[in-house]
Design a protein that fits this description.
mainly alpha, elongated
């Protein structure tokens, strides 16, 4: 069975990092792709119609979302209260039926004597 080394955490990732620098060719390629991606994003933003109206109605939309969330919370609270009430009614009915059943069993208890002959 191989012996497991118990290294401390400070030596856990020692000699695992890539310390080599990137070549100029790789750096130029990455910068080209970054520039291309930036231009594509600008082009996409340019083709979005009515940008000014979107920025103007942004504040109103945020307030509408929060008001709708508050309504959802109030309605879900009412639903939870109704579920709690129905659960408590069912639980109380089970308890009452169980107690009546136990009372009947206690009152009508018959002794069973086994007679040995």
């Amino acid at each position: 069975m191989p012996r497991v080394k118990n290294n401390t955490r400070q030596y856990l990732f020692k000699n695992k990092l890539n310390i080599r620098r990137k070549s100029k060719r790789v750096l130029l390629k990455e910068s080209f792709f970054m520039m291309l991606f930036g231009w594509c994003l600008l082009l996409i933003n340019y083709f979005i119609p009515q940008k000014n109206e979107l920025f103007i109605t942004f504040k109103k939309n945020i307030f509408d979302i929060f008001s709708n969330l508050l309504e959802i919370l109030f309605y879900s609270l009412e639903i939870l209260i109704v579920l709690l009430i129905s659960f408590s009614i069912l639980l109380s009915l089970f308890l009452i039926v169980g107690s009546i059943n136990r009372l009947i069993k206690v009152m009508l208890y018959k002794t069973r004597k086994i007679s040995i002959r």
